[in-house]
């Protein structure tokens, strides 16, 4: 594995017009992301995780030309800060977005919820605040939604039922309150539900018993009344942790 000791990503990397796959993860690059990467109009896969060790923002990267093809964007484990760039909403073919383990703040932009092809959204371990937007229900193809370890508040939106292909929902370690919406029981493909370490109250809805594929349910460190046997009817449920 090459390690570039904080050197900037060379501008010429934005030159190969037919490049489809670019993985610069763990290479030790520093500085800002060169805007020339935005010239890679045929790029399908861009992986830049675990590189940048100074506080930066992403505004230097022009993603307009990437919107026609890019399906996979991984910027995990850097020190990007500021708001999540609205330009990500231009990546209409994006299926996988990982911005976790950074220092993004502000809210989840509603334009991210317009990415109809998105299957995996990972935003854990940032400083994201405010609530989960109701428009998360627009992500009909979503299979993985991981927002854990942020400062998200408000309640779980009832529209969470709309991504019916959802396999994993991770909302742990936030400030989410209110009661669990009964619409969670409509996520028939759900395997893992982690709501631990929040301020959710009330009873678990009986509709959770409809989740026939559920394997793991984590509800510890909330204010939940666990005396709801209807929510444990899933025959495949391997682990229930109320705490």
Automatic annotation (TrEMBL):
SUPFAM superfamilies: L domain-like (SSF52058). Residues 112-226 form the Disease resistance R13L4/SHOC-2-like LRR domain. It is found in: Cell membrane. One of its GO terms (cellular component) is plasma membrane. Keywords: Cell membrane, Glycoprotein, Leucine-rich repeat, Membrane, Repeat, Signal, Transmembrane, Transmembrane helix. It is a single-pass type I membrane protein. Its main location: membrane. The keyword Signal applies. Belongs to the RLP family. This is Receptor-like protein 19. It comes from Elaeis guineensis var. tenera (Oil palm).
């Amino acid at each position: 594995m090459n390690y570039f000791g904080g050197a900037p990503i060379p501008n010429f990397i934005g030159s190969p017009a037919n490049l489809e796959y670019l993985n610069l993860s763990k290479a030790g690059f520093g500085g800002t992301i060169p805007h020339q990467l935005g010239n890679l109009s045929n790029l399908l896969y861009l992986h830049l995780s675990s590189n940048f060790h100074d506080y930066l923002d992403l505004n230097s990267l022009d993603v307009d030309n990437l919107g026609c093809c890019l399906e996979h964007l991984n910027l995990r484990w850097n020190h990007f800060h500021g708001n999540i760039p609205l330009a990500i909403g231009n990546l209409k073919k994006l299926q996988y977005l990982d911005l976790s383990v950074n220092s993004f703040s502000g809210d989840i932009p509603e334009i991210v919820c317009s990415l109809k092809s998105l299957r995996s959204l990972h935003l854990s371990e940032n400083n994201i605040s405010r609530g989960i937007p109701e428009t998360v229900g627009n992500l009909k193809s979503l299979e993985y939604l991981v927002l854990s370890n942020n400062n998200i508040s408000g309640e779980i939106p009832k529209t969470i039922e709309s991504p019916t292909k959802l396999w994993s929902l991770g909302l742990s370690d936030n400030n989410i309150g209110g009661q669990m919406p009964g619409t969670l029981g409509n996520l028939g493909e759900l395997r893992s539900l982690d709501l631990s370490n929040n301020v959710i109250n009330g009873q678990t809805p009986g509709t959770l018993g409809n989740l026939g594929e559920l394997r793991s349910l984590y509800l510890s460190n909330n204010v939940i009344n666990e005396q709801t046997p209807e929510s444990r009817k899933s025959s495949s449920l391997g682990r229930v942790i109320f705490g």
